[in-house]
Amino acid sequence: MTAQPKVIVTRRLPAAVESALRERFDVELAARDRPTGPDDLQRALAQGDGVLSTVTDKLTAEVLAAYPLRARIIANFGVGYDNIDVLAAQAHEIVVTNTPDVLTDCTSDLAMTLILMTMRRAGEGERELRGGRWTGWRPTHMVGSRVTGKTLGLVGMGRIARAVARRAHHGFGMRVLCYDPAAPSPVELAALGTEPRATLEEVLAEADVVSLHCPSTPATRGLMNEQRLAQMRPGSYLVNTARGDIVDDDALTAALAGGHLAGAGLDVFRGEPNIDARYMKLDNVVLLPHLGSATRETREAMGFRAIENLAAFFEGRPIPDRVA
Ligand code: DGY
Question: Is 232's pLDDT higher than 70?
Answer without folding.
Answer: yes
